[in-house]
Design goal:
Layout: E1 11-14, H1 21-30, E2 34-38, H2 44-51, E3 56-58, E4 68-71, E5 74-76, E6 86-91, H3 102-110, E7 113-116, E8 133-136, H4 148-159, E9 164-169, H5 179-188, E10 193-196, H6 201-208, E11 222-226, H7 240-244, E12 249-253, H8 259-268, E13 276-281, E14 289-294, H9 298-304, E15 311-315
Parallel strand pairs: 1-2, 1-4, 2-3, 6-9, 6-10, 7-8, 7-9, 11-12
Antiparallel strand pairs: 4-5, 12-15, 13-14, 13-15
């Protein structure tokens, strides 16, 4: 059984013997759990573990005395108000559910509550339990949004009721996804938190478009920056001049609205106007599109093609490549 959540220090009761019981026990023990098996006649392999002092056997157990109760390969959802819940921060990768990690998928299946963004692989929600609560906290660029403080509060409210709460995001939650803020909020509140990394759109979007962000013959590194605020904005901390001189591929997230200002600043800082550039929109979706041009024309080209968010801009020699063509 895949274990997507940390069971370290938890008491786990297995109440049904099955063909996967022994592998489940070993996985739980490896993860640091204290394991009890409820069975009047356990198989030899299970009794052997008990005889070695690795697990406990019990003919009849009081289920509420354990942190987690498992029947076969399925964990019983924790009762509200019994024990501490937890938050699992799942990076869902680009919108294609096939690019969600196995650990992320298992977390969704185990969740009592799923709090999701608009760019998460929402098709994967079909794997959530029928009784799971699904909460949409998506943020529309320059439109409706749920404040981050409210999102943090939602995670804590449900976890405090003893629930397994999955925070499902697109890409990787620790790459411009505020996952770090959510993890800190949970830790400050004493709520256990687990991080399941996802494939960042900074590498996934170019890859799906046939653009490698590095290439042995062309470039030895790449830089990822937010384009949420343009160069010259008092809120911007990006050294665009250093990026223009870095010799690395430049990947810009959240930069559709500011692309013209960004490209103008890069050229003003010395990056050649004929540097290849591309914009990949809706990566991982059926509506995915890629436009290519040069640094001095990419913003105009993207606007002409009505490219909108979510989109990832790639600037550098590799942007001229399409290794999938």
């Amino acid at each position: 059984m895949p274990l997507d959540l940390s069971f370290t220090g938890r008491s786990v009761l297995l109440t049904r013997i099955g063909t996967d019981t022994i592998s489940t026990i070993h996985a739980l023990l490896h993860d640091g759990a204290t394991v009890t098996v409820e069975s009047a006649e356990p198989p030899t392999s299970v009794r052997d573990l008990a005889d070695r002092g690795l697990i406990e056997l019990c003919a009849e157990a009081e289920h509420t005395a354990y942190d987690v109760v498992m029947r076969g390969a399925t964990a019983t959802p924790p009762r509200a108000g019994i024990g501490a819940g937890e938050v699992v921060l799942v990076g869902g990768g680009p919108s294609d559910p096939g690019l969600l990690t196995l650990q992320g998928l298992d977390a969704i299946r185990a969740a009592d509550v799923v709090v999701h963004d608009r760019l998460a692989p929402l098709a994967a929600l079909s794997h959530a339990r029928a009784d799971a609560e699904i909460i949409d906290v998506g943020k529309i660029p320059r439109g409706e949004f749920t404040p981050q403080e409210r999102i943090n509060a939602i995670l804590l409210e449900h976890a405090r009721r003893g629930r397994i709460v999955v925070r499902l995001k697109g890409g990787d939650g620790f790459v411009f996804g505020r996952g770090g803020e959510e993890a800190q909020a949970c830790r400050d509140a004493g709520i256990p938190v687990t991080v399941v990394p996802g494939i960042s759109s900074s590498i996934a979007a170019p890859a799906l478009a046939g653009i490698p962000v590095t290439h042995r013959d062309l470039v030895q590194g790449f830089s990822v920056v937010s384009g949420h605020v343009p160069p010259g904005d008092p809120r911007s901390t990006v050294e665009w001049g250093a990026l223009a001189r870095s010799g690395t591929t430049l990947v810009v997230l959240m930069g559709v609205a500011t692309l013209a200002a960004i490209t103008a600043e890069l050229m003003a800082q010395g990056l050649a106007a004929d540097t290849p550039a591309a914009v990949v929109a809706d990566a991982g979706m059926a509506s995915m599109r890629t436009v290519r041009a040069t640094l001095d024309t990419i913003a105009e080209t993207a606007a002409h093609e009505r490219i909108g968010a979510p989109a990832v801009a790639v600037i550098g020699a590799v942007a001229a490549l399409d290794v999938l063509a």
